[in-house]
Amino acid sequence: MIDYTVTTTKTVDEAVNALAESLKKRKFGVLWDLNMTETLRNKGVEFEHPYRILEVCNPQEAKRVLGETLMVGYFLPCKIVVYEKDGMTHIGMPKPTEIMKMIGNERIAETAAKVEAELVAAIQEAKS
Asked: Which domain holds residue 116?
C-alpha cells in the first residue's frame, strides 16, 4: 500500500486540531493547512466533502535528506489529508518510505522510515 489511512469518529476540524498537537510533540510543524472544500467553493465549485490537506515538516529531518540530494525536495513537505466520507473522518498520508524509493538512496530510505514511524504515531494519537 502506498498510503497509511485510519478512520475516526472525530469531526474533520477536531481531527486536524488533534493532529497538529500530536505532530508538535514529535517536532513536526504544520506549514500549511489547505481547506480544499472552502478553496473550491471560493472558485465557484461545490465540493460536498469536508477536505483538508496539511503540509507538515520536521526541519532537522528535512535538512538531513536535502543534504543527501536536493532532488528530494520534489517530495517535501510531507502531506497528511483529513476528510469526511460516509459519515467517518479519514486521516491519511502517502507513506514516505514508498515515495522515497524513487530516489534510490539508502540513507534517505532510513530517514523516510523514521519519519514515517513518527507520522504514523501522530496519526494514531490524533484519531483517539
From this structure: 3-127
Q: What is the CATH number of the domain that holds 90?
A: 3.30.310.70
The DSSP annotation for the chain comes to: --EEEEEESS-HHHHHHHHHHHHHHTT-EEEEEEEHHHHHHHTT----S-EEEEEEE-HHHHHHHHHH-GGGGGG-SEEEEEEEETTEEEEEEE-HHHHHTTT--HHHHHHHHHHHHHHHHHHHHHH-
In this predicted model, what pLDDT tens digit does every residue of 54-75 receive, in sequence order? 999 999 999 999 999 999 999 9
Domain count, the chain: 1
pTM of the model: 0.95
